[in-house]
Amino acid sequence: MSAAPFDLVAVWAVIIAFGVLMYVVLDGFDLGVGMLFPLFKERGDRDAMMNSVAPVWDGNETWLVLGGVGLFAAFPLAYAVILPALYLPLVLMLIALVFRGVAFEFRFKSRHRRWLWDAAFAGGSTVAALTQGVALGAFIQGIKVADRAFAGGPFDWLTPFSLMTGVGLAAGYAMLGCGWLIMKTEGPLQQRCFALMAPLGLVVLGFVAAVSLWTPFLSPAIADRWFSWPNLAYLSPVPLLVAIVALALWRALRRRRQALPFVLTLCLFVLSYLGLGISLWPHAIPPSVTIWQAASSPEAQRFLIVGVLVLIPVILGYTGYAYWVFRGKVTGAGYHS
User: What is the DSSP string of 51-103?
Assistant: First the structure.
């Protein structure tokens, strides 16, 4: 299928990529808080950790819905191929998110089985993070397509590369959660998070390096994009910026900065996401189906873009308002300015 006028297909690709990025960085930190939960045994610490994300976690997941619906509307072929290819990890992710969401509602009301909801919160967060990373790795390594349909097996997603990306993304979410808790808490809980942040950062940087080195071996086209001349010169700022952000993060932790570690971790995620985008562009289904081949009709995309251009500012507005209202430090009893 040819590109829509004014390359509306590329505009839709950017919109969906933006929605996915917003989900990763926003829901990523509250999934990270859940994964850190077992490391903190005191009830007051756990109450503070949950209070720090309770007002915003469900709004963060709006971006997941936007990305899924946008993919279905704008790139129906990609939706029809990717979901069967990643059916098992995506179903596990949704089940984990359900358990995690229920834990928010029941934990503070339970007297005798609080441990059960603690486990649901931590386990749901961990499984959701791992399955998202596995799905990402399976998408990067490529999906088999024949006659505009998924042509692989039910376990094609389960490979050493996808398992590595699963653990790597989970570590990244834990790092985001640690940075969030540094920014939102105080006292011994905050100091323990400062102590955790540096080793988590080293682990995450190790996974970033491993994925960056492994990805070019998955496809000659990706290797050529990164290592051919003059692309090598054009794209070299990306890894250089990663190194600069990592150094700035280390200095921020040494100086006990409150908000900067979280902001710099967000920057690290954005740069990693940019690197993946450079590797995979312009494929909607790597390595064979481009965004133009997977796109819906130009008429459908023009009709839908009107609603999306209204909806995204609304979502950004109420998300920003929620974070503004619940700004400040949090304790086990709630927020204080």
Answer: HHHTTTHHHHTHHHHHHHHHHHHH-HHHHHHHHHHTHHHHHHHHHHHHHHHHH
Give a yes or no: residue 222 inside a domain: no
Model confidence pLDDT, tens digit, residues 106-126: 887 777 788 888 899 999 999
Instruction: Answer whether residue 332 is part of any domain.
Output: no
Q: pTM of the prediction?
A: 0.92
The residue segments making up the domain with residue 82 are: 7-196+284-326
Enumerate residues 6+ apart whose C-beta is below 8 A from 321. none
Return phi, psi of residue 199, to 5°. -65, -35
What's the distance, CA 219 to chain centroid? 23
pLDDT digit string, tens, across residues 132-178: 999 999 999 999 998 889 998 889 999 999 999 999 999 999 999 99
Q: 156 by DSSP, 3-state: which?
A: coil
Query: What phi, psi does 334 have (nearest 5°)?
Result: 140, -165
Residue type, 47: D
Q: What are the angstrom distances between the C-alpha of 70 and each of 78, 136, 166?
A: 11, 18, 24
CB 159 within 8 A of CB 217: no
Q: How many domains does the chain have?
A: 1
Find the Cα–Cα–Cα–Cα dihedral 83, 84, 86, 91, rounded to 10°: 80
Residues β-bridged to residue 145: 150
Residue 76: closest CA among 291, 318, 229: 291
Contact indicator for 183, 259 with CB cutoff of 8 Å: yes
Q: 187 — alpha (psi -120 to 50), left (phi > 0) or beta?
A: left
